[in-house]
Amino acid sequence: xxxxxxxxxxxxxxxxxxxxxxxxxxxxxxxxxxxxxxxxxxxxxxxxxxxxxxxxxxxxxxxxxxxxxxxxxxxxxxxxxxxxxxxxxxxxxxxxxxxxxxxxxxxxxxxxxxx
Amino acid sequence: xxxxxxxxxxxxxxxxxxxxxxxxxxxxxxxxxxxxxxxxxxxxxxxxxxxxxxxxxxxxxxxxxxxxxxxxxxxxxxxxxxxxxxxxxxxxxxxxxxxxxxxxxxxxxxxxxxx
Lengths: 115, 115
Description:
The complex is a heterodimer. By secondary structure, chain A is mainly beta. Chain A is built from no helices and twelve strands. Chain A is globular and about 45 Å long. In chain B, strands 2, 4, 5, 6, 9, 10 and 11 form a seven-stranded mixed sheet that branches. The interface between A and B is medium-sized, with 23 and 24 residues.
């Protein structure tokens, strides 16, 4: 079955530091990959996505590249801000089969950014 | 567009009581998902519907849980009887199609506490 593994957190950084949150996946076929962000007290919001190998998703200074050879989709940001403090979820979705339409989430990584 | 509307935002109930969580998806979205989030288990997909029909309820933990979608604009998740281990945040999400997660919009969640 499908699975997503994220680096364990929590991650604590100072403002303007470089961020990497690792994500690897197991899936059949050619999944689409996503990063979602959850701010305190809110639901999940789509941050970025990539639908095929070597695609790079980007939004709000965050980037992630779909690496099929390493089955990875690591999230990066060059300079984090206090407002980036949130929980980040890596997820995948298969386009067909019994998993059609379903998102499989990683366990989430808590990011805290200090001034 | 008001987004996915969930009610109530918070629910505190006594063990053994019936609890009903409500969700109004985005108009035109034909997929609806119920997720449960806990610190121990992360995000779990409980059940999802397509065009008001339950497609996969394999994530429903036990018979105490039931979900309905009587029409395209309303869904309920019921727990009867409730137990302390059901305490969690329950999210509803909707999507215009099942292909990928890009169309997923999450509600703000219902925080359930069973005492």
